[in-house]
Amino acid sequence: MAELEAVIGLEIHVQLATKTKMFCGCELSFGDEPNVHTCPICLAHPGVLPVPNEKAIRYALQIGAALNCEIAPRSIFHRKNYFYPDSPKAYQISQYDIPICGPGRLGDIRIHRAHLEEDAAKTIHVGDSGRIHGSAASLVDFNRGGTPLVEIVTEPDLRDPAEAANWARLLRETVRQLGVSDVSMEEGSLRVDANISVRPAGSDQLGTKTELKNMNSFRFLQRGMEAEYERQCALVEAGGTVEQETLHFDPASGTLTSLRSKEEAHDYRYFPEPDLVPIVPTEEMLREAREALPELPVARIERYEGIGLAGDVALTLATDPETADYFESATAAADGIEPKVVANWVTGELAATLRQAKVEGGAAASKVSPEQLAALIALVQEKEISHGSGKTVLGIMVAEGGEPAPIVEREGLAQMSDSGELEAIVEKAMADNPDAVEKIREGNNKAIGAIVGAVMRETKGRADGGEVNRLIQERINS
Ligand code: ADP
Ligand code: MG
Ligand code: ZN
Questions:
Q1: Which atom of ligand 1 is the closest one to the Cα of 153?
Q2: Cα(372)–Cα(300) distance, rounded to whole angstroms?
Q3: How many A from CA of 213 to the centre of ligand 1?
Q4: Distance between alpha carbon 367 and the CA centroid of its chain, in Å?
Q5: For 211-224, what is each residue's pLDDT tens digit?
Q6: Architecture category of domain 419-476 in CATH
């Protein structure tokens, strides 16, 4: 049988970080006592009328601009009817056939649409695994009910769970940098549902999909998708067919359970919300949404790869704009040094040193200025000090601050310039390690490490590794 490939489309709910709810003036705040942020509108008392939150509409337009979406000149709200305690109106105000943001893309993945809606209240199941009978009960907290949401829907363009999880991370970072949401998966301000099907690799038909609900971390999201992909493969390979359903993944046991057979759109009896006028963004609103865009991760990654950074380094920097700006200042100060060398110091040695010293807030918040880091890198590049000494100096700079040159002086770390002295140390190290010398002669080049190590110990890391290697080879070959 042909290899089966995964086909994945994501639906991402983003809670907008507005001050108030989507259709009433209740405050948004996470973690407060239940049911303190409520009013007749979000509790659906009879006769109330919703009033849309302008800021939420502006935030949705910003997300649309960041995802390169076509913006609808006129979009409308619909009622999505369903009966559940988390929805006091027994419908959710959402958008249906005319969403505010139409087709777009983020990186290689096409966006199908992004629409505005309101969040449901939060149901909390207490007691015996949440059953309503016996001592168990379900409680409802209406603080969350009516929170503005943007639901972003991708086309089924993702081809494996790891790719899907990484793309979701990129989306999260993009929305985070817009400043329109807290994008916390733990607190539920970013929620990702994954739709998955399988098909023979290379086919252009879509198989029947299942939907995985609401994983609360990217790792669980990926593991859930992997488990579901494997389940569908086993099913299809055994001659069975995939049923359309909604599933829950339990990360602790690694098992998938069916929540319900998936409802169809007509089950929701969508109809236009008669209490709200259409959303018609003004020119000013559209311009503001575009102009408020920072340089987003996708653009930064492209620009950094263009100046020679490796893909993973470019990604690391693009998802941390403060450190990326720091890198750019250091590069500007490090005249004649390749950006990739500076980037490796920023994301490698400096990041590791900051972590070790438990410095919070990254490079930009550290005692090391971009100019000082540039000066340190120059000392290493010009072989004034060895790479190892560079790390030692950096450790001191992180702890105490200060320019690198005086620290080099004070600590006696200047590279050994007296080649006679270094030659003598190399010769002694070779004499002390006859086994290693023999191995190198037999062609085992790894054995050179033992001699280099001995020289470095003797010189306290002040020797240049390249020069030590050269001196050893010279002696072996003579
Ligand atoms: P529904 O009507 O069930 O909500 P949609 O067509 O609106 O389905 O698609 C919802 C999400 O599922 C989208 O992200 C879409 O890309 C994805 N999707 C649709 N069909 C498939 C499929 N066959 N396999 C995987 N993902 C799919
Ligand atoms: Mg859908
Ligand atoms: Zn309210």
A1: 14
A2: 24
A3: 13
A4: 27
A5: 999 788 999 999 99
A6: Orthogonal Bundle (1.10)
Give the global pTM: 0.84
Which residue puts its alpha carbon closest to atom 7 of ligand 1? 153
Q: What is the 3-state secondary structure (H, E, C) of the chain?
A: CCCEEEEEEEEEEEECCCCECCCCCCECCCCCCCCCCCCCCCCCCCCCCCCCCHHHHHHHHHHHHHCCCCECCCECCEEEECCCCCCCCCEEEECCCCCCECCEEECCEEEEEEEEEECCCEEEEECHHHCCCCCCEEEEECCCCCCEEEEEEECCCECCHHHHHHHHHHHHHHHHHHCCCCCCCCCCCEEEEEEEEEEECCCCCCCCCEEEEEECCHHHHHHHHHHHHHHHHHHHHCCCCCCCEEEEEECCCCEEEEEEECCCHHHHCCEECCCCCCECCCHHHHHHHHHCCCCCHHHHHHHHHHCCCCHHHHHHHHCCHHHHHHHHHHHHHCCCCCHHHHHHHHHHHHHHHHHHCCCCCCHHHCCCCHHHHHHHHHHHHCCCCCHHHHHHHHHHHHHHCCCHHHHHHHHCCCCCCCHHHHHHHHHHHHHHCHHHHHHHHCCCHHHHHHHHHHHHHHHCCCCCHHHHHHHHHHHHHC
Tell me which residue has tokens 């030590």. 468
Ligand 2 center from residue 153 Cα (angstroms): 8
CB of 350 closer than 8 Å to CB of 394: yes
What is the whole-number distance in angstroms between the Cα of residue 430 and the centre of ligand 1? 67
Mean of the per-residue pLDDT values of the chain? 93
Q: List the domain boundaries for the chain.
A: 4-291, 312-411, 419-476
Q: In ligand 1, which atom is closest to the CA atom of 211? A: 12
Q: How far apart are CA 108 and CA 302, in angstroms?
A: 13
pLDDT single digits (tens) 396-409 = 999 999 999 999 98
114 confidence band (pLDDT: 50, 70, 90)? very high
* pLDDT for the residue 260: 77
- At 124, the amino acid letter reads I
Half-sphere exposure of residue 99: CA atoms within 13 angstroms, side-chain side: 24
**Contacts (Cβ under 8 Å, ≥6 apart) of 304:** 313, 314, 317, 318, 324, 339, 343
**What pLDDT, on the 0 to 100 scale, is given for residue 335?**
86
Ligand nearest to the CA of 11: 1
As given in the structure block, the two tokens for residue 417 are 């310039």
Residues having CB closer than 6 A to ligand 1 are 7-11, 153-156, 195-197, 206-207, 209, 265
